[in-house]
C-alpha cells in the first residue's frame, strides 16, 4: 500500500471482534472507519497509534451503524473534533443502538449522531487520498463501502467476508439485496482488489468470486 501512498492500520476491538480501520498517507491526515473501541484500553490503543504516527484525524466514517461498529464514535468525535458521517438510510439503525446496548452487555455506549450524510458517487478526500463511496445495502439499509482505486483496497464493512457474507437477519437486512450489492458493486471491481472486512481476515474479490459458497 505504501507504493501508492495509502497506509492502512487495523485494530480488532470489542466482544464482537470488529475490525476498526485507520487510513492515512504521507500528509499524515487520516480517517477513522468504524471505531469499535468499547473500553478505555481499546480507546488508548487507537489513540496511541494515532499519536505515535503524528496523524491528524480529519474524518470519522461508518460503513454502517450496528453496535459493534459504532461503540467508539463518540470517543473519536470528541477527542479529535470531527463529525460523524454515515449514509442517511442507516440513521434509524444508529438511533436504535441505545435501545439494545445494555442487553448486549455494553451499557457504556454513548450516542453521537451524524452531522453529514454520505452518498454514492461522492469521494472521501483526505491528504492526497481519494476514496470512492459505494452504496451496498443488504446487511444494513444504509451500508456503504470505501474503495481506494489506486491501491485496489476496499474497506468493506459487513458485506463480504472470506468465504462468507454479512448476516441479513437483523432489522433492515435483506438477503436478496445483499447478494445484489455484492454482485453489482463489489464483483464489478478488479479481481486483485483486497477486501478489508468488518470481521475476520482480508480476502480478494477474485478469491470470493471463485470460492465463496454463497455466490457460486
UniProtKB/TrEMBL annotation:
SMART domains the UniProt entry points to: Lactamase_B
CDD domains assigned: metallo-hydrolase-like_MBL-fold
Keyword Disulfide bond: no
Cofactor(s) required, per the database record: Zn(2+)
Domain called Metallo-beta-lactamase: residue spans: 17-199
Molecular function per GO: hydrolase activity; metal ion binding
Statement: the UniProt record of this protein carries the keyword Metal-binding: yes
Domain of life according to the entry: Bacteria
Keywords per UniProt: Hydrolase, Metal-binding, Zinc
Pfam families (alphabetical): Lactamase_B
Name of the protein in question: MBL fold metallo-hydrolase
Amino acid at each position: 500500500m505504501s507504493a501508492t501512498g495509502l497506509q492502512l492500520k487495523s485494530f480488532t476491538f470489542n466482544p464482537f471482534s470488529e475490525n476498526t480501520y485507520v487510513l492515512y498517507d504521507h500528509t499524515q491526515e487520516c480517517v477513522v472507519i468504524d471505531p469499535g473501541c468499547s473500553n478505555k484500553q481499546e480507546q488508548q490503543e487507537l489513540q496511541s497509534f494515532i499519536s505515535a504516527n503524528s496523524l491528524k484525524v480529519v474524518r470519522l466514517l461508518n460503513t454502517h451503524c450496528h453496535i459493534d461498529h459504532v461503540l467508539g464514535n463518540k470517543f473519536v468525535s470528541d477527542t479529535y473534533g470531527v463529525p460523524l458521517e454515515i449514509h442517511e438510510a442507516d440513521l434509524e439503525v444508529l438511533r436504535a443502538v441505545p435501545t439494545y446496548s445494555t442487553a448486549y452487555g455494553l451499557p457504556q455506549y454513548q450516542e453521537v449522531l451524524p452531522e453529514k450524510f454520505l452518498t454514492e458517487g461522492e469521494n472521501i478526500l483526505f491528504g492526497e487520498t481519494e476514496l470512492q463511496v459505494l452504496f451496498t445495502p443488504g446487511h444494513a439499509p444504509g451500508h456503504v463501502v470505501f474503495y481506494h482505486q489506486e491501491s485496489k483496497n476496499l474497506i468493506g464493512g459487513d458485506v463480504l467476508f472470506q468465504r462468507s457474507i454479512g448476516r441479513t437477519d437483523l432489522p433492515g437486512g435483506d438477503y436478496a439485496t445483499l447478494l445484489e450489492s455484492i454482485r453489482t458493486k463489489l464483483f464489478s471491481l478488479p479481481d486483485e482488489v483486497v477486501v478489508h472486512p468488518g470481521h475476520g481476515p482480508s480476502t480478494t474479490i477474485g478469491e470470493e468470486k471463485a470460492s465463496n459458497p454463497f455466490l457460486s
